[in-house]
Specification:
GO terms for molecular function: monoacylglycerol lipase activity; phospholipase activity. By secondary structure, this protein is an alpha/beta fold. It is 44% helix and 12% strand. The chain has a single domain, classed as Cytosolic phospholipase A2 catalytic domain. The protein is built from 13 helices and 8 strands.
């Protein structure tokens, strides 16, 4: 019996906490290079489908963007450096902006200028149809009130669904209260008004599973040739952006009104969604007796702050170190995951 699988990578949302999955995936890519004796191999060479929400959507775009020769443009280290080198600019909050926005209460907390500049620098004029592999990147249409799923296959088959990659990255990461909504147009000018996909799918792994079920990978440019796979035909690796450490206590919460609940409810909804999807997928893979083909990596934040926009030099370093600590403490687990990725 063949062990060949459709291999899926999924990355949660979480703002600057994208450093955590970025660090772990950089290690995995480095190990893939070492084991294959190929310093040029990339994550996109080993996965058939990559999914992302918000910060995970930006990572997905970075792993899948290609150069003028159709080769993967960026390494996992390059993707990590977006956060380490540009995160401070993206979440820059001058005192004048604090006053003008009333700390995000009256207006979006941050300007989109630095974010859009970084996305333009990395993704240029590339379109979703040009991405290396099939993908699923989440966003939400606040005008027509519906979930939006960007993917390469739709971009190829329908110009109405072919968008600039930088616009997709902007839309999936348009976190309410942090950034204003994204207004984007497709290749034939079909406008959408979008916010962060984390409002409904902070963990996009189940979306990735559903997308994979619809694809004939024999007709896609991917390592696998399996048509319309089910759970027993898949290997799914899902990465979170760090466990939420902030507890909320009854004596305080019982007196909260709308303003007090805003930040806690965002935290609870994001982590609750991620945990629910993890439970659902565990049960699905258990039902087909393939528990070893679903892996969830959710590292501890350790000394890092849980805020999605804390870009102090100390917190950037702490997030990176938290990723490295997870790698050090879970070498055997990660090694088995890499074994699965390399199975043919």
């Amino acid at each position: 019996m063949s062990t060949k699988k459709v291999k899926i990578l999924s990355i949660d949302g979480g703002g600057i906490r994208g450093i955590l999955p970025g660090t772990i995936l950089n290690y995995i890519e480095t190990e893939l290079q070492r084991r294959t004796n190929n310093p040029n191999t990339r994550l996109a060479d080993h996965f058939d489908l990559i999914a992302g929400t918000s910060t995970g959507g930006i990572l997905t775009c970075t792993y899948l963007i290609v150069d003028e020769n159709g080769q993967t443009k960026y390494s996992a280290a390059d993707a990590l450096n977006i956060y380490l080198e540009r995160g401070g600019d993206i979440f820059n909050l001058p005192f004048s902006r604090k006053l003008w926005s009333l700390f995000g209460i009256r207006r979006p907390k941050y300007s989109v200028d630095s974010l859009e500049s970084a996305l333009h620098d990395y993704f240029g004029e590339s379109m979703t149809a040009d991405l290396k592999r099939p993908c699923i990147i989440t966003s939400y249409d606040i005008r027509d009130r519906k979930a939006i799923f960007f993917n390469k296959v739709d971009g190829i088959n329908n110009p109405v669904r072919n968008y600039k990659v930088r616009d997709v990255a902007r839309a999936t990461s348009a976190a309410p209260t942090y950034f204003k909504p994204a207004k984007i147009k497709s290749a034939i000018d079909s406008p959408l008004v979008l916010v962060d996909g984390g409002v409904f799918a902070n963990n996009p792994a189940l979306c990735a599973y559903a997308e994979a079920r619809t694809l004939d990978f024999a007709k896609q440019d991917t390592p696998s040739e399996i048509a319309f796979p089910s759970a027993e035909d898949m290997f799914l690796l899902s990465l979170g952006t760090g466990t939420e450490q902030q507890p909320y206590y009854y004596d305080s919460a019982k007196n909260w009104g709308m303003l007090k609940w805003i930040q806690p409810i965002i935290d609870i909804m994001m982590s609750g969604n991620s945990e629910t999807v993890d439970y659902q997928l565990k049960q699905m893979f258990k039902a087909v007796k393939h528990e070893d083909c679903y892996h969830r990596i959710q590292p501890s934040l350790h000394n890092a702050k849980s805020q999605m926009d804390d870009v102090s030099p100390q917190n950037l370093k702490a997030l990176h170190e938290a990723g490295l600590v997870y790698i050090s403490n879970n070498e055997e687990k990660i090694s088995k995951i890499i074994d699965k990725i390399l199975e043919s």
